[in-house]
Specification:
alpha/beta; 11 helices; four-stranded antiparallel β-sheet; seven-stranded mixed β-sheet; Aspartate Aminotransferase, domain 2
């Protein structure tokens, strides 16, 4: 998250010093917030200051906005603590950690049905954002090589994707000078439409993105239909436009909950896939994975070879050093759960999402537009004619500790505002029922205020940066 300068001389800036009363027993003077103190303090005092401030954060158990894992078993916590000091990229010093990373890449590739006849490759990342940048770069480099080999210009690459993509795809296009071509959403269709996507494809298209789990509604895009239609178009035009599957959210759901669904390397045009281990891979943030169908799909020019850690080490990452803990935790889950364990968890989460969707749909105020048919996500909006907004609902739930985001849908349907609940392993059926009860309470309160002619406090998006004047959350600030 981008943070801005805090002007400590402005009158509306919070007190520049930290001086909690109980800490006065250990501190001789207040501690500056925005610059280093001159003196050191005891470990206990430093811990207590930070510990108490963090109490102002939301409760992860009640955070229904994020896909990110907030709970792991104690044994996984212990492994994480034991590996905090290990740098996963250092093969010479930590060869077994690198071996475990290699096992994870192979497990993920086979989970996504990478052909055994191929030399598939992959790498861990900090999350799907880094993985998407890597996948996009491979698409761009392969396209440029093909164009140059054919004597064609290679200055105007474009990427075709639904308008519902997560913001990282916009970042990739802007950072690496690729024209984004968005397939617009429409009322009743909140993901990429194949018929709408194909006219945007041309000889300068580096690839088409298929999303396995939209961040807006939890829906899977029709990747099999996209593959079949794109195969015909490629044959007709003499192109070789591939597909990258953004499986950030669905990559660890579909193989277990929908094993017969063809979305992965079973489809010939799918050349690369990213997935978030820290979402439904059930690992704390941050770990992601990106795998390529074959080594030939990852241009050699993008791979760097370093030897200053000892021995030759090929690397393709935006971030070089990273803690080994999340990779080890991912392997713990693979060993601990296996296919049967992951399947049981995903089916339970989908059942719970269906239960929650039924409860919300049973009210007279909400229409469910995403009910956990793909991801365990429930997306809903207010019925027409309501005298209050989704933002007021979200704010009212926050008073009870629930973090349920309200946000506008993508361009062309941005007048639609929705609320979304991500069902994760830490959410129980009892908590779901309590959420619905609190929804009813909030609606009742807003109804009474409307009857009295009173106006609720206007909704203010919470700032995402430190200090006054920080930017507020944008449309794509959805985890």
């Amino acid at each position: 998250m981008l943070s801005k300068k805090v002007d400590t001389n402005r009158p509306d800036t919070p007190d520049p010093d930290l001086a909690p009363l109980h800490a006065s027993r250990a501190l001789n003077s207040p501690v500056p917030r925005y610059q280093l103190a001159d003196d050191e303090m005891s470990p206990r005092a430093a811990y207590q200051l930070i510990h108490d401030e963090l109490a102002l954060d939301g409760n992860p158990l009640l955070n229904l906005a994020s896909f990110v894992t907030t709970w792991m078993e104690p044994e996984a916590d212990k492994l994480l603590a034991e590996t905090l000091s290990k740098n996963s990229v250092d093969e010479d010093e930590y060869p077994q950690t690198v071996e475990i990373q290699r096992r994870c890449v192979n497990i993920v590739a086979r989970l996504f049905h990478a052909p055994e006849a191929n030399q598939y490759v992959g790498t861990p990342t900090i999350g799907s954002s880094e993985a998407i940048h890597l996948g996009g770069l491979a698409l761009k480099w392969r396209w440029r090589t093909r164009r140059q080999a054919s004597g064609l210009p290679a200055e105007r690459p474009n990427l075709v994707m639904g308008a519902n993509v997560q913001v990282v795809w916009e970042k990739f296009c802007r950072y690496f000078e690729v024209e984004p071509r968005y397939v617009p959403c429409a009322e009743g269709r909140y993901v990429l439409g194949v018929e709408e996507a194909l006219p945007l494809v041309d000889g300068n298209t580096i690839g088409v993105v298929g999303i396995l789990g939209s961040t807006y509604t939890g829906e899977f895009e029709p990747i099999k239909e996209l593959n079949d239609a794109l195969e015909e178009l490629n044959a007709e035009k003499g192109w070789d436009v591939p597909i990258h599957v953004d499986a950030a959210s669905g990559g660890f759901v579909a193989p277990f909950a929908y094993p017969d669904l063809e979305w992965d390397f079973r489809l010939p045009l799918v050349k690369s896939i990213n997935a978030s281990g820290h979402k439904y891979g059930l690992v704390y943030p941050g770990v992601g994975w990106v795998v390529w169908r074959d080594q030939s799909d990852l241009p050699e020019e993008l791979i760097f070879h370093v030897n200053y850690l000892g021995g030759d080490q090929p690397t393709f990452n935006l971030n070089f050093s990273r803690a080994a803990g999340q990779i080890i935790a991912q392997y713990y889950n693979f060993l601990r759960l296996g296919r049967a364990g992951y399947t049981a968890i995903m089916r339970s989460l989908l059942d719970l999402a269906d239960h929650l969707a039924d409860a919300i749909d049973g009210t007279e105020h909400f229409e469910v537009i995403g009910r956990g048919d793909n991801l365990p996500v429930v997306c809903f909006r207010l019925e027409d004619g309501c005298r209050f907004t989704a933002y007021e609902i979200s704010d009212g739930l926050r008073a009870r500790g629930w973090i349920v985001p309200a946000y506008t849908m993508p361009k062309d349907i941005e007048t639609m505002t929705v609320l979304r609940v991500v069902v994760r392993e830490s959410l129980s059926r009892d908590l779901c029922d309590s959420l619905v009860e609190d929804l009813d309470r909030v609606v009742g309160r807003l109804d009474r205020l409307a009857d009295q002619g009173a106006e609720p406090e206007p909704f203010q998006a919470r700032p995402t940066g430190a200090g006054p004047g920080s930017p507020t959350t944008g449309q794509h600030g959805i985890c």
